[in-house]
Amino acid sequence: MAGTEYVIGVDMGGTKIYAGVFNAGMECVGTARLSTKADRGAEAVIERIARCVRDAVDECDLKLEQVRGIGVGAPGAVDPEAGRVIFAPNLQWKDVLLKKALEKELDLPVFIENDCNICALGVYELELKSKPQHVAGIFVGTGIGGGLIINGELYAGFNKTAGEVGHMVLLAGGPKCSCGNNGCFEALASRTAIFRQIKEAVGEGQKTVLTEMLGPKLEDLRSGDLRKAIRRGDKFVSRIVEQAAEYTGIAVANLINLLSPEVVVLGGGVIEALEDEMMTIITQTAKQRALAGTAKGIEIVASKLGDEAGISGGAVLARRQTK
Ligand SMILES: [Zn+2]
Question: Is 63 helix (H, G, I), strand (E, B) or coil?
Fold first, then answer.
């Protein structure tokens, strides 16, 4: 269709909404951000997503009529065909018909997916240029999510819930996970897990430069602070981060054994902040732990898309669905 070559990707998180407009060459030409304000309820959040989309379009002097579709990544369990967010704990959403509601607000076709699936799709098409056939994406942030690309397509599985790499159990009887289980990958290597271990040890008298930097209660602790502490020679923080990297490497080995992807790509705030500290350990552990010969030629890489993975993936989804 002439004149409607733009697509929009939206990354909706528990705290912020981020929208990006992409041209026919899939370059991002304008963005907008808005806080989510999840406590105001689903209807209000949907209205804010629509506002953020309009702001992004206005930012690049375009009109909504020039947009052919919108792809939205939502945190939680999503039924893309029904356009429904089944359950999103950090938004306190249950059974929200997001696609229909946004289409009504914006009068444009809307497509929804799980946020980590969307990030995997964005990395696959815009960063890896769709060259590999099989890719496993792991995103380490507050939680740990994943997305699987098999034969060039997002793999959803029987109940459309595949890719939950964060809930692979890596330590039976290990720490409690947000899902209620024990010893999940997420409970061992997410930002939440790393911060919990640090705060517990500090509470028991562990010395660290982090308390010099941030005070005794470690308020406002961020992933970047861990990098600073390690570069200042803090052995305690180093050890905790190394352990998280080892668990991540074990998770990668499991994925290699199970799927034999051509590329395993790692992203999310923790990897972004601690790439230099973690990637070598992740790669070495994965290659040691995968069955002999199975890791040969498989690339294990850190994504460079950072914060842009979600909006990129949303744009890719919208482009694929409106071709
Ligand atoms: Zn879990």
Answer: coil
In sequence order, what are the residues at sequence separation of 6 or more whose Cβ sits closer than 8 angstroms to the Cβ of residue 135? Answer: 120, 123, 124, 128, 148, 149, 261, 262, 263, 264, 265
Per-residue confidence in pLDDT tens, the chain, 323 aa: 457 899 999 999 888 999 999 999 999 999 999 999 999 999 999 999 999 999 999 999 999 999 999 999 999 889 999 999 998 888 899 999 999 999 999 999 999 999 999 999 999 999 999 999 999 999 999 999 999 999 999 999 998 889 999 999 999 999 999 889 999 999 999 999 999 999 999 999 999 999 999 999 998 999 999 999 999 999 999 999 999 999 999 999 999 999 999 999 999 999 999 999 999 999 999 999 999 999 999 999 999 999 899 999 999 999 999 98
Q: Tell if the pTM clears 0.90, that is, is over it.
A: yes
**Ligand 1: distance of its center to the CA of 267 in Å?**
19
Distance 23 CA to ligand 1 centre (A): 38
Ligand 1 centre and the CA of 61: distance in Å?
Answer: 44
* Nearest-10 Cα torsion for 244, 247, 249, 253: -170
Residue 181 Cα to ligand 1 midpoint, Å, equals 5
Ligand 1 centre distance from Cα of residue 140 (Å)? 13
